[in-house]
Amino acid sequence: MHPPSPAATAMDFSQNSLFGYMEDLQELTIIERPVRRSLKTPEEIERLTVDEDLSDIERAVYLLSAGQDIQGTSVIANLPFLMRQNPAETLRRVLPKVREALHVAGVEMQLTAAVSFLTILQDESVSVHTYAHSFLQVILLHLEHRDAGVSNAWLETLLSVIDVLPKDTLRHEILNPLVSKAQLSQTVQSRLVSCKILGKLTNKFDALAIKREILPLVKSLCQDVEYEVRSCMCRQLENIAQGIGTELTKSVVLPELIELSRDEGSSVRLAAFETLVNLLDIFDTDDRSQTILPVVKSFCEKSFKADESILISLSFHLGKLCHGLYGIFTPDQHLRFLEFYKKLCTLGLQQENGHNENQIPPQILEQEKKYISVRKNCAYNFPAMIVFVDPKNFHMELYSTFFCLCHDPEVPVRYTIAICFYEVSKLLNSGVYLIHKELITLLQDESLEVLDALIDHLPEILELMSTGGESSVQENKLSSLPDLVPALTAAEQRAAASLKWRTHEKLLQKYACLPQVISSDQIYYRFLQRMFTIMMTNNVLPVQKAASRTLCIFLRYNRKQEQRHEVIQKLIEQLGQGKSYWNRLRFLDTCEFIIEIFSKSFFCKYFFLPAIELTHDPVANVRMKLCYLLPKVKSTLKIPADKHLLQQLEMCVRKLLCQEKDKDVLAIVKRTVLELDRMEMSMDAFQKKFYEKDLLDQEKEREELLLLEMEQLEKEKQQNDGRPMSEKTFEKKRRDSKTPTSLPKSIPISVPGSSSATPSTSKEIKKSKLIRSQSFNNQAFHAKYGNLDKYDSFRTRNTNSAPSSFSSNTSLPSTSRGTGNSVDPKSSGSKDTQPRKATLKSRKSNP
């Protein structure tokens, strides 16, 4: 079978599609018809046109008088601007027109006016007296608008106005008319508005005036025939109680609440219960035990037979209720209340089945949603329930409930318990080991929302997990969390595979706390290599930067010199000399983090030359980024020890000035040169102006030297004992040492290069070094992860100057790119090009 020829195909296409094209055109015509009808006619355009020579005030008056509704609404929306510009003319000419327009205005204009009046009040365009005289009557007039949304908008404006009006104005303009507005003869809407106004007025009058003028109205509205009014007034009793004081609250408000708690309307009973819970702090122990406790007990017993909305409110206020009634329950009541909470935590789970949601009736689905809200509220109140039962009884009383909440089938419940996990960990304190498995469960949760909620306090949680736990000795901190490392790596991979890069970024930032939790080898083999992969392959810049900074922190606290050198080599070769300009940009980001986290001597030894060699990079963006970094690079130099590095930096800058062809880069180079010239160099000796920075840098360098000493002493220990020192043994000895956080002044700082040539023969000195080195790894990271940037714990020490060299057993080469290399600028800017040739140079160590 032969395929049809192109000509036949074209002919067939044109013939068969002809009528299809006609139908498409007809459809387009139908679509266009409403558009054409919506266009304004010349007469309509003429009516909407306003003379451009009119002032703002005249235009507003004209549009409110003769314009259409949309134009009047626009004028009212612009009323705050007119008041700021010309308040006198606006009040005299525009505001009367606004009053007239509002009499017949629609919903949109009314809502706009309510917002504009509130804005004028907040802007303080006029005095309070002028505002009350000009605007208050307009607000009061429209409070009872037939549209509920409009009425509520004006009410919100009035409640804000009440805060600033003087007492006399409030009494004459609002309180006195309220007596008639609150009568049964008025509409329900009028009485509802009166309830909310009364709740607001109590904060403006003294207790005597409230008792004489406001409380009679309150009692009347609490006995209203409409349940809506009783419920609304009941919710205002909290504000009224705060205004009248404790004695009147006990004698007047409490009896009303008790009576409303027995009301036939469920919404009224719910309002009374919530108000009682919010007022628990006002009542004494006798009132709580004799009056409030029976009401709460009855409310809880009847809640399962009532509407689910009552259960939702009850579960939400449970924590506050437990706190307020703590110490009042008898043992039997305490146990019943705890069982009631446990029952709420599993509400709806017993009805789980395998049916499809489409087969479940809508009313059942709605009920299940309410049950989910109840369990979510129970998760929210779980820390309060731990206090209620005492953390010592957690395992017996609440662990099974906590397990159910962490394994709840619904994401909102697990999300809420993940948020509370840190609070739970703090409350358990030494018993935190009990919830190790639940931490792993939430880390492995299929929902990224749950993971995102958990990692907000992940460093603090892991710190508690690693240092707390009375049943396990501290040396078993790793064995007590056998699944932690796999769970953390799996969590990062799930975040990386999703589109939620912010969660991934946050997770990588929090992983910087791992050196205080797990061993250096675990970080090296399970996390550090992963940070490299993210830096090289991830397409999201914030994620790459987060991985870069965390990698630098891992490198900072790595205990093995060989591993540190391997990481440094990779950074230089795969990023600094990478074939992709994107990788070279990330190398400069990494250099910035290195300057921030490490000592100056460390950066100068390993990263100074590879960084400034990028001044010859063929990609303008790389050179531009380096120019921005050069002031920080120069700040790492110390004179006279680093004079030769300063000369190389100046030579690179001069080459940029002379040879740079890109105008944007050249402009930045010129600005950078001026900034570099203004910079003052740090000296080897301490200077008063740089004292704090120099001291901080010296402590960083001291820590880096201690890491080298620690590794050297470990090797000597292994050689002397004839067997390797295990990680657990080392951790045990490190923790058992009682060395203080601050390093003693008398301990000398040894130069690793010279100490290896002339080793100390004193066993006491070597033992002192070992104890100091063992304690360092724990103490250097004692500050929480959030304080890594500052290293504040080392600022108060008075120390001797440390040597500037950072010795190593093997010399790590620094890279240098010559200008004579033939490089194609276009190919070097691509991520698929070959790596450029590099000339390797080794930096001479300083004497």
From TrEMBL:
Predominant subcellular localization, coarse grouping: cytoplasm
Record-linked Gene3D superfamilies: Leucine-rich Repeat Variant (1.25.10.10)
Biased composition (Low complexity): 798-816
The keyword Nucleus is annotated on this UniProt entry: no
Region (Disordered): 714-771, 786-847
Transmembrane segments: none
Name of this chain's protein: Serine/threonine-protein phosphatase 4 regulatory subunit 4
Protein's organism: Capra hircus
Function according to Swiss-Prot or TrEMBL: Putative regulatory subunit of serine/threonine-protein phosphatase 4.
Description of how the protein assembles with itself and partners: Serine/threonine-protein phosphatase 4 (PP4) occurs in different assemblies of the catalytic and one or more regulatory subunits. Component of the PP4 complex PPP4C-PPP4R4.
GO molecular function: protein phosphatase regulator activity
GO cellular component, one term: protein serine/threonine phosphatase complex
Biased composition (Basic residues): 838-847
Coiled coil feature spans: none
Superkingdom as given in the UniProt entry: Eukaryota
UniProt biased composition (Basic and acidic residues): 714-738
Keywords, ordered alphabetically: Coiled coil, Cytoplasm, Phosphoprotein, Repeat
HEAT repeats: 214-251, 253-291
Compositionally biased intervals (Polar residues): 752-762, 817-832
PROSITE patterns assigned: HEAT_REPEAT
Keyword Phosphoprotein: yes
